[in-house]
Amino acid sequence: MNIEELREYCLSKKGVTEGFPFGETALVFKVAEKMFCLASLEGDFSANLKNEPEKNLELREHFPAIKPGYHMNKQHWNTVEIDGSIPDKMLKQLIDDSYRIVVEKLPKKKQEELKNS
Fold first, then answer.
1. CA nearest to 18, candidates 2, 3, 33, 1
2. For position 117, what pLDDT does the model report?
3. What per-residue confidence (pLDDT) applies to 42?
4. What InterPro entries does the annotation carry (predicted)?
5. Average pLDDT per block of 10 residues along the chain, 117 residues long
6. pLDDT value, residue 115
């Protein structure tokens, strides 16, 4: 997966916006103003994605390309190096998980608005 494929996949989800709130080297994807993916455009291509704490530990144990989230809460975020060692299907699942976790934390009214958009 390259940056354009990641971008298209993230933007295909309901209610997603993109921006550069941290400068031009970090592309951020949000749903309802809450970040679910931060893609690094500088140096090695990587993405910070949210997941459940237990799942994060398991992923880090099994995949050398998945590390504690760089500049993020390391319990809830992973940095996934997108170097070809993680299959695209799995990467899409990690993006889906991050999006779902963020949406589930939204107020019920926001969740309904998103469902009906």
1. 33
2. 80
3. 85
4. YjbR, YjbR-like_sf, YjbR/MT2646/Rv2570-like
5. 95 96 95 96 91 96 94 94 94 98 94 87
6. 86
**Right CATH number for 3-107 from 3.90.1150.30, 1.10.10.10, 3.40.50.11270, 3.40.50.300?**
3.90.1150.30
Q: Is the pTM of this model over 0.90?
A: yes
Closest listed residue to residue 5, CA positions, set 56, 33, 39: 39
**Could you tell me the CA-to-CA distances from 116 to 18, 30, 97, 109, 110 in Å, in that order?**
20, 18, 20, 11, 10
How do the residues of the chain divide into helix, strand and coil, expressed in percent and rounded to 5? 40, 25, 35
